[in-house]
């Protein structure tokens, strides 16, 4: 009886594993300028970015919400001291991040590589 219960519990954990996995945005990413940033969960369906290296080490680069590799939120442009509406998408080991102003008329984007 104990063996059946143990096998049933193990099966449940294996099936639940993918549902418990982190979103693709979670992890460390390298910007084209060499700066490393990290996105981590900071609430239900919310992911916060923090600079890990360079001049702005420890600063927030904004937060995103979403799932399945597609996210929207705010992006902080630290060298300008401004916050933009942003979006991000993850495909393989690439994070495409962009920020826009004026209803999306002016946008800047960059591709980051998973570390």
SSE layout:
Elements: H1 2-20, E1 27-30, E2 36-41, E3 46-51, E4 60-67, E5 70-77, E6 82-91, E7 94-101, E8 106-114
Antiparallel strand pairs: 1-2, 1-8, 2-3, 3-4, 4-5, 5-6, 6-7, 7-8
Describe this structure in words.
There is one protein chain. The protein has a single domain, classed as Lipocalin (Beta Barrel), CATH 2.40.128. It is an alpha+beta fold. It starts with a helix and ends with a strand. The chain is globular and about 35 Å long. It has 1 helix and 8 strands. An 8-stranded antiparallel beta barrel has the order 1-2-3-4-5-6-7-8. A hairpin with a 5-residue loop joins strand 1 and strand 2. Keywords: Signal. InterPro entries: DUF2147. It comes from Phyllobacterium sophorae.
Characteristic terms for this protein:
single chain; alpha+beta; Lipocalin; 17% helix; globular
Order of helices and strands: HEEEEEEEE
CATH superfamily membership, which one?
Avidin-like
* Helical percentage: 10-25%
Count of helical stretches: 1
Q: Per CATH, what is the topology? A: Lipocalin
Spans where pLDDT lies below 50 across 5 or more residues: 5-20
Coarse structural class: alpha+beta
Strand percentage: over 45%
Report how far the terminal alpha carbons are from each other: 46 Å
**Average pLDDT reading:** 85
Strand order of the largest sheet: 1-2-3-4-5-6-7-8
Radius of gyration: 18 Å
- Tell me the count of domains: 1
Shape: globular
Name of the CATH architecture: Beta Barrel
- Number of distinct beta strands: 8
CATH class: Mainly Beta
InterPro entries: DUF2147 (IPR019223)
Keywords: Signal
Organism: Phyllobacterium sophorae
Protein name: DUF2147 domain-containing protein
């Amino acid at each position: 009886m104990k063996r059946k219960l143990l096998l049933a519990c193990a099966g449940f954990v294996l099936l639940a594993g993918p549902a418990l996995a982190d979103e693709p945005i979670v992890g460390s990413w390298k910007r084209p300028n060499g700066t490393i940033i990290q996105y981590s969960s900071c609430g239900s369906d919310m992911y916060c970015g923090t600079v890990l290296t360079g001049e702005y080490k420890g600063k927030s680069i904004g937060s995103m919400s979403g799932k399945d590799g597609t996210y929207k939120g705010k992006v902080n442009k630290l060298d300008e001291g401004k916050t933009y509406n942003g979006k991000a998408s993850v495909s393989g080991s690439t994070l495409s991040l962009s920020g826009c102003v004026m209803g999306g008329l002016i946008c800047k984007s960059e591709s980051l590589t998973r570390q």
